[in-house]
Structures are given as C-alpha cells and as structure tokens.
Design goal:
Layout (H helix, E strand, L loop, with lengths): L2 E2 L4 E5 L1 H18 L5 E6 L4 H10 L4 E11 L8 E6 L9 E9 L3 H12 L4 E9 L12 E5 L5 E2 L16 E4 L1
Parallel strand pairs: 3-4, 3-6, 6-7, 7-8
Antiparallel strand pairs: 1-2, 2-10, 4-5, 9-10
Helix pairs in contact: 1-2
Length: 177
C-alpha cells in the first residue's frame, strides 16, 4: 500500500483495482438486464465518479438521473426528516431502477430510498455500491452488487469524501494515516 507523505493518506484500493472491478460489475449488470432499459439513479455526492464509470461499462440502454437525500432538522425529540431531491422528476412506474451508491454504511438511507422507489411503482429496484461497510449496518440490507468490502473508518478518493475536505479527485481510495 502506498503512503503519500504530502496528503497524510494511505492508498487502500488502487485505481487499477477499481477500474477492473467496475468493468466486472458492468458485465454482471448488463447480463442481468439484457433486453431491458435501466434507470441509473446516482446518490449524490459520493457516487458521481463511480456512476460515470459504471454506466460506461454497462452495455444495455441506460437513463441517468441523480438523487440527493438530505436530513432536515425536525422538532425537538423527533427523528430527523429525510428530504429527497431528484435532478428531475422521474417517471419510474414499471421501470428497472439501479440505485447507485459510493458507500453503503448503516444502510438506513439506502433502504428508505429503495422502499420509496418501489412505492413509486418501479418494476424492480436494485442497489449497487462501490464500497460496502457491512460492519456498520443498522438494517438487514444487502446490496445486489458491490465492489469492495471495507472496514476503514474514513475513505476518500474516487468521488468519496466530505464536503469540507479535499481528496474526492484522487483516482484511488485512501484512508487517513
């Protein structure tokens, strides 16, 4: 594993490993959806680079859209409210939806979004994630497709990171040292 002294980051998954796994996922998804059109629904922000590479690796027709879940503060003592913002209003009734995550952590948001999409009449809803942190799961959710199992506390690179931190533009995935 490479360590970059300038960034304080340790490479965990290389760019080559990521691209190889994305191609494999693309072939698997293409096989599963042969003869169908897929709505690829990327969850912002962490999925944008993964989604871009993944949809190019899929060889069935794909419609791309984005979704941004955000939690709103509610009244004191109540659970936060989840607000879902779509890039544009999607007609998903009787369509095949592929929900794309950069990282599935607790699974709570993914499970909620999948349930919401089914409630909107999607024919199928499947979840694909680049990274699956099963050790942090709070709900019994298993992605239909995943790139890598991880346990590192915080990873950045390849589109992942926090809004106030640099590193989303790294071609590999890294953990802080």
């Amino acid at each position: 594993m490479n360590v970059s002294p300038n960034t304080g980051l340790r490479q965990v998954i290389s760019a080559d490993q990521i691209q190889k796994r994305v191609r494999e996922l693309g072939r698997q998804i293409s096989d599963d959806y042969r003869g169908q059109t897929v709505i690829a629904l990327g969850i912002l922000e962490n999925s944008f680079l993964f989604m871009a590479d993944l949809v190019r690796a899929v060889d069935v027709p794909v419609i791309c859209a984005f979704i941004k879940p955000s939690y709103k503060q509610s009244k004191q003592g109540e659970s936060p409210l989840l607000e879902i913002l779509f890039s544009h209003e999607l007609a998903i009734a009787d369509k095949h939806v592929l929900l794309i995550e950069g990282l599935v952590h607790s699974g709570v948001t993914s499970e909620y979004l999948m349930s919401d999409l089914r409630g909107r009449g999607a024919a199928t809803v499947k979840l694909v994630t680049l990274l699956d942190r099963q050790s942090a799961r709070r709900v019994p959710l298993q992605p239909d497709y995943f790139g890598f199992l991880v346990d590192d506390a915080f990873l950045c690179g390849y589109g992942l990171g926090s809004p106030e931190q640099t590193g989303r533009n790294l071609p590999y995935l890294a953990a802080t040292i």
